[in-house]
Amino acid sequence: MEKFDIIIIGGGPAGLNAAMRLSNMNYKTLVLEKEKVIGGKLNQWDKLFPDFTPAIDVLKYLTENIKQENTQISTSTSVTKIDKSDNLWKVTDSNNNEYLADAVLITTGFDVFDARRKEEYGYGIYPCVITSVDLEKMLETGTINFPIETSDRRRRIAFIQCVGSRDEKSGNHFCSRNCCICAVKQAIEVKEVVPDSDVYCFYMDLRMFGQHYEELYRRSQQEFNVNFVRGRVSEIAPTFDNRVVLKAEDTLLSRPVKMTFDLVVLMVGMNPSEGTKTLSSLLDINDEYGYVVSQDEHVADNLTNKAGVFVAGTCKRQLTVPETMKDADSAAIEIANFLNRR
Amino acid sequence: MNRHHWIEYQKAVAPDHYFFGRSCIRQTFFTGSETAFIDIVEKELGLDICDDARQHTCTGIGYHSDIIPFLTTSTVIARLFALMTEKGYKNYVPSCITTFGLMSEILETWEHFPETLAQTREALYKATKREFEVPENISHPCDIIYKYRNELKQKMKYQLVDKNTGEPLKVVDHIGCHYAKIFPTKGIGGAEFPEVLSGMVESWGGSIVDYAERRQCCGFGFRNYLVQADRGYSVSNTYKKLESMAPYEPDLIVCNCPGCTMFIDKWQYTIAEMEGKTFDKYGYGIPVLTYEELAGLLLGYDPWKLGFQIHQVQIEPLLDKIGIKYNPEEKFASASGKQLIPPEKPVNLKV
Question: Does one domain contain both A138 and A162?
Answer without folding.
Answer: yes
